[in-house]
Amino acid sequence: MSAAQPIYTVGHSTRSIADFVALLQVGKVELVVDIRSISRSRANPQFNRDTLPATLASWQIDYEQILALGGLRKKSKTIPRELNGFWINPSFHNYADYALSDTFRTGLDLLLAHAADRRCAIMCAEAVWWRCHRRIVADYLLLKQQDVFHLMGLSRIQPAVMNAAARADAGGLVYPAVAAD
Q: How many domains, in total, are found in the chain?
């Protein structure tokens, strides 16, 4: 697909730092791009933004946060609901609406610029990509002809596949409701 480095997606979940880094090493990740809106956790403080960069640096892995790609978006007041009607879950629907914004595009462009010369992994807290906004970010990367892989485990890497409901639109991707048969 792309001449750029592949981009990985990963959820830190409740992993130890050693397990997390081992997973990153499977993909030869050089830069973790934090796409959490809230980059701290009482339950998993090893992934807090104030300590994670230094911890990763000890393994020669860089860290950057791109807030423009963060999740937990509010309901849009300007995007018609049916445009992204495929998403029943409000969190995904809201994020799909947000992904049509200039702010999202700026964040995506920054991620792609990093991926031009370094192996990146976009990171969120959710362990599995299909329960996380990483799935929508992955769709946008695929639209840009970027290779994307989901780091699921040490011996489990899944190639990302565009959501079947996704449709290219002038502003990005839309996910119209799928007609029931």
A: 1
